[in-house]
Design goal:
single chain, 99 residues, mainly alpha
Length: 99
């Protein structure tokens, strides 16, 4: 559960940072890809689906908010899987624990 909670915090912080920089520096000439790249790395392997979605729906996924939202959703799905695995592991440990 600790790993899943930590991963949730990292995903939410990376997603918030990426969304904040994308919205505040939207029309800026300064480069601001570091938060987006961090979010992309944090949400691997599901974040690789963004390539296929961009090919299928280029008009929708060309905006930074749509990309950040998709990557954050990928991270939340992975967090859900981690919580489910932690719960299954906890139940299996409780079953096999001597009393």
């Amino acid at each position: 559960m600790t790993i899943a909670t930590t991963y949730l915090i990292v995903v939410l912080l990376a997603g918030g940072w990426a969304l904040y920089t994308d919205l505040t520096l939207l029309h800026s000439q300064r480069e601001h890809l570091a938060p987006d790249i961090l979010l992309l790395i944090v949400t691997l392997p599901l974040s690789s689906s963004l390539t296929y979605l961009y090919d299928a729906l280029p008009a929708f996924f060309s905006g930074p908010v749509a990309q950040v939202s998709w990557l954050t959703c990928c991270g939340l799905v992975q967090t859900y899987v981690l919580f489910a695995l932690a719960r299954i592991f906890q139940k299996s440990v409780d079953v096999h624990r001597p009393q």
